Amino acid sequence: MAVASQAQHQSPETIPAIELRGISKAFGPVQANKDISIRVMPGTIHGIIGENGAGKSTLMSILYGFYHADAGEIFINGQRATITDSQAAIRAGIGMVFQHFKLVENFTVLENIILGAEDSGLLRPSLARARRELRQLADEYELDVNPDAVIEEIGVGFQQRVEILKALYRKADILILDEPTGVLTPPEADHLFRILHNLREQGKTIILITHKLREIMEITDTVSVMRRGEMTATVATRDTSPPQLAELMVGRKVLLRVDKKPAKPGRHVLEVENLRVVDAKGVERLKGVSFSLRQGEILGLAGVAGNGQSELLEVLGGTMRATGAVRMNGQPLDLSGRQDARARREVGIGHVPEDRQQAGLILDFAAWENIALGYHHRDTYSKGLLMDQAAMRADTVAKMGRFDVRPPNPLLAAKNFSGGNQQKIVVAREIEARPDLLLIGQPTRGVDIGAIEFIHKQIVALRDQGKAILLVSVELDEILSLSDRIAVMFDGRIMGERVASQSNANELGLLMAGVTGEAA
Amino acid sequence: MTNLSTFLGATALLALGAGAAIADPAVIFDLGGKFDKSFNESAFTGAQRWAEETGGTYAEFELTAEPQREQAIRRFAEQGYNPIIMVGFMSATPLGEIAPDYPDTKFVIVDAVVEQPNVRSVVFNEHEGSYLVGLLAGLASESGTVGFVGGMDIPLIRKFGCGYAQGVKAANADATVIANFTGTTPAAWNDPARGAELALAQIGQGADVVYAAAGATGVGVLQTAADQDIKSIGVDSNQNYLHPGEVLTSMIKRVDNAVYDAMTAGEAVETGVQVMGVANEGVGFALDEFNQDLITPEMKTAVDEAAAQIASGALQVHDYTADESCPALTF
Amino acid sequence: MDKMPRWADILLVPLISLILAAAISALVILAIGENPWNALKIMVTGALGSTYAWGYTLYYATNFIFTGLAVALANHARLFNIGAEGQAAIGGLGVALVALYLPWPHWTLALLGATAAAALFGAAWAAIPAFLQAKRGSHIVITTIMFNFIAAALLNYLLVGPLKPSGTMETATAPFPPSTHLPSFQDMFSTADTPLFRGTPANVTFFVAVLLCVLVWLLIWKTRLGYEIRAFGFSEGAARYAGIGATKIIMVTMLISGGLAGLMAINNTMGEAERLILNAVEGAGFIGIAVALMGRSHPLGVFLAAILFGFLYQGGAELSLWTSIPREMVVVIQALVIMFTGALDNMVRMPLERLFARRTRSTPLAPPGPTLHPPGRMAPPSTPAAE
Fold first, then answer.
1. Longest Cα pair distance anywhere in chain A, in angstroms?
2. Which end of chain C has fewer CB within 10 Å, C or N?
3. Residues of B with CB below 8 A from C202's CB?
4. Contact B70 C201 (CB under 8 A)
């Protein structure tokens, strides 16, 4: 399957909406794109899948005019096109929705939509026209947003819709979406897919860049796989399967299910009783949460993002105050804020935070400095008054080796590692501290398939050493495959607990929506 | 101004090293700079007058930092400038230390006393001049309340204020004197907006004559007084012309004369302490076509009488800096 | 990967900025009818051409090293200490009290005592804004500015009243006793036959400043506290996650920063004036901001930038002495340098980065890869600087 098999189900006379021929692009010695050819048929959803760094984003940046290809040609609707900048791309009918939205936070939806596409110096007529068109588009594609809402006050799902509307307002016929579900909750992602379906029904062409196999299988018509700058295959989605795509992406067989033995739970490590958190705005985020966790087991906390899981992790990790009682190895923890994250580490709590970029890592620090984060005061890293930097570097090299961090360069700043390798650094640091309890939030968010497999193995290995693990993830698949027990959170409460092996996505999905077993 | 020839001469000397005698005078202005609308500018005026009348040239330096006091004195002395004139009391200590190193150079310091054989110290009896304008203010005031706006709160300015208050009280023993200072940094000398604010505040408290001893800040005081149709008093140079018919008078302090005299005397300048008071017309009040209608004959008589008494020694105006207290005003 | 080699970032960018500033200054000097080449010669000889010149240049540089280090250290915790001016002024008060009211047998002891007092007073002055920031969230920029004014008012009161010897007009304390006089470069380096640094204010404090550059470098990059300060500066969230307390870091950083600023008083008050003069800091606290900015918050950069500003101050003074270029023009030249090296840094950086990016593409040996990270301007220097 390594050779491209052209699976075209269109008739030969159909002209591709986009055709790239022999695109190559190098950054210094790095060949980001190597002789890439691809045909995207009009009115289809075409997935491009590949690991981080496979060259997907570079390819799309060339198409959108951010980079210029060293070689190759672009055809749009059969016409050869020279796309010098994003304005040219927009004129050619291409719209792009970036992973990180390009919106003005304190402008309204309407203002953002006309930004850069005003009819004249006077705003009022542009706004009025935009308002009319927006209503039309919203009806057509299920893209309802309040045009007068301010961007910073609406959720990410809505912000993404604004980005799509921006592209449609500029008369885009071809939409490129770069990792659109990375920031979305499962229901938001479902809504996005409905929108994409509608767009396709209306004849729009969509290119979806992702590394999630499930999304590819769910909504694309055709899928192209990229690996190390090359297009390894283009296949009709219905003719392929997740394991086959994973193999094409990674270049070897990948285990998509976690292989683990039954848990052998020991004594209680963590006991949580009636935990309550009220945030700065006076909103109650945790409304009396109680559970316990034993040695050698993984408790998965499922739930749609924003239902209290983050707060629970922060309270246990020592970065948020709470009321209630928590006992760690039988000893009560101070929840009043007097004990900080350092005190938590001292009692054996390790923490892989949900947001590695904001909390788990200091992006401007080198890898060797990040390896000590949170443990920097320990004697192993000290030499008299100074830090023992040689020891820190040696330790980093060792951990990078064991966790297969690439490149294994301890001097490189954290921001220069790919998402998966960043996460490996955090996971390596926390797991190798051998905590009695590991809090781990979104362990594989934005991480490549190959790295996911590795991180999952490490978590299971830690469990098998008799450590307790509290796993928070919005990926239901991940919760189901890793956990021994699953607790579902909704609106600051635990809605129910299930044994993982006896549960399924449907049952958990209902609990995540706040529907209890008895009511259903 | 140094012209090109002095500049080239100076650079040539820089290359050759010290020794040659130019015997041009040099003037060192204090931190406020030579366009401070106050005593530095007055010194500059005197130097310019000398240059225009004699066709001579002189070197000049405007201080921008404290250590430059010593630097400028030494550099000018080493280049053979003579006499070297500096204005501002803060140069007293550095000059006291440096003067003995250059026994053949004559130094002139304005506003401070340095007891060295080659130094002439020119001090002004600002309290006497201020007494006279205070007397006029007391006589001109109908509300019985007058104001004083100082620049930075330093002893010299208190000396102005104290003399002024004594004059006011001499005219009207029940009068109230409101005293304010503009600020605590050197910016206080160049803050007309703040001067205007303070003048307004004093007017609000009933003042109908305000005396500004605050450098360029005083411009704002005088402007506000004119706008609010009350009387004001200028300082250092004759500022009557700024708002004809609105400026009651100005307390004149002839720094320009002191500089002009020293430059005229040249290397032969007499050393020792020179006190410039009412007696030798070093200080006084201004009377010209712009304010003659404001000074009634009675006022004129009274102020002339007081001036004569001060000159003769019959009237002793208390000098704040003598004992750092003021009988007529609490700061 | 960064867009440019590090040497280009650290040396080439400031150098080109300087040349641009010099070019525009030359045009301005030409416009007022003076010869820019002569002006440059006067500045260079006057500031670097003799021991006399160095005696002044290094004196000013010493002041700027202290305030530059103060601002730089605070920058690492992403605290913008605009209060170095006031902290240095209050540091001077500490020096004056110690020098005037304690008996000192020898200058070495007096230097130690004054160092402690200057640091303590400067730190105390920074402590209140720091506390307000840490506990009440009052913005440190606002509070430190306000404390500059309060310091000025306090010193004005003291130097017009209680601390001024009666009978003098000068707003200054009495001269310090001779046993507290620090050896000047003239005392230290002159021999009987060859007087060096004659009459110049540079003194032993310069070596204190150099020592502090090393200590601050060690503190920032080699100690646990420095690690915590940098971690906090880069990411408050990550610092909290790591158990690094915001209150502690804000307080400790500002105390050290204030102490460093306060230490400037050893140079100007004890070393030069040998008495405390009103307004003795003369803007060095604000120059410290430019110095830290230009030195990219690295002690070595601060040292070099301080020398540059010392050069500008002394060269500017010589320019005023020997030409009719008015002192306002000298300020314009200094401002141009600050503007080009600080505020307009990106103007030079961007084209250079593009240039290097193009070069990188054609030379396969150079490090790979563009990133879309914007150049981290105000950010503290990245880690490899520690190497």
1. 77
2. C
3. none
4. yes
Do A437 and A350 form a contact (C-beta atoms < 8 A)?
yes
pLDDT tens across A334-384, in order? 999 888 999 999 999 999 999 888 899 999 999 999 999 999 999 999 988
Overall average pLDDT of the B264-286 stretch = 92
| Alpha carbons B259 and B92: distance in angstroms, whole number | 17
Please check whether residues B121 and B268 belong to one and the same domain: yes
User: How near does any CA of chain C get to the CA of B322, in Å?
Assistant: 6
pLDDT of residue B242: 92
| Cβ atoms of C85 and C286 closer than 8 Å | yes
Provide, as residue numbers in chain C, all residues whose Cβ is less than 8 Å from the Cβ of A345. Answer: 243
What pLDDT band is residue C372 in, cutting at 50, 70 and 90? very low
The answer to whether A24 faces chain C, any CB pair under 8 Å, is no
For residue B89, the chain C residue with the least C-alpha distance is C170
pLDDT for the residue numbered A5: 41
ipTM of the shown complex:
0.82
Chains B and A touch (3+ CB pairs under 8 A): no
Q: B90 CA to chain C: closest CA distance, Å? A: 5
Predicted local confidence at residue A449, as pLDDT: 79
Please tell me the predicted confidence (pLDDT) of residue C385: 35
**Domain A268-356+435-512: CATH architecture, name and number where available:** 3-Layer(aba) Sandwich (3.40)
Q: Based on the domain organization, do B49 and B118 belong to the same domain? A: yes
List the structure tokens of B267: 């290397």
Quick one: pLDDT at residue A13? 54
Query: Domain tally for chain B?
Result: 2
- pLDDT for A9 equals 47
- Beta carbons within 8 Å of B15's beta carbon, 6+ residues apart: none
**How high is the pLDDT of residue C1?**
42
Query: Taken in order B298, B304, B307, B312, is the CA torsion positive or negative?
Result: negative
Tokens linked to A288: 């009396």
Is the Cβ pair C361, A29 closer than 8 Å?
no
Contact check, Cβ <8 Å, C160/B66 = no
Q: Compare B200 and C370 and report the one with higher pLDDT.
A: B200
CATH number at residue B218: 3.40.50.2300
pLDDT in tens, C85-100: 999 999 999 999 999 9
Please check whether residue B171 lies inside any domain of the structure. Answer: yes
CA C6 to chain centre: 23
Pair B133, B237 in one domain: yes
Residue C135 touches chain A, beta carbons under 8 Å: no
A373 touches chain C (CB under 8 A): yes
C316–B112 CB contact, under 8 Å: no
Contact A387 C240 (CB under 8 A): no
Would the pLDDT of C341 be above 50?
yes
Domain boundaries, chain A: 16-90+207-254, 268-356+435-512
Residues of chain A below pLDDT 70:
1-13, 119-121, 183, 185, 517-520
Of A162, A254, A175, A168, nearest to A211 by C-alpha is A254
**Chain B residues with CB-CB distance to C324 below 8 A:** 1-3, 7
Range of the structural domain that residue B180 is part of: 126-253+281-323
pLDDT at B3 over 50: no
Does the pTM surpass 0.90? The reply is no
> Which residue of chain C comes nearest to A384, CA vs CA?
C223
Identify the CATH assignment for A16-90+207-254 out of 3.40.50.920, 3.30.420.10, 3.40.605.10, 3.40.50.300. Answer: 3.40.50.300
The 10 Å Cβ neighbour count of residue C210 is: 14
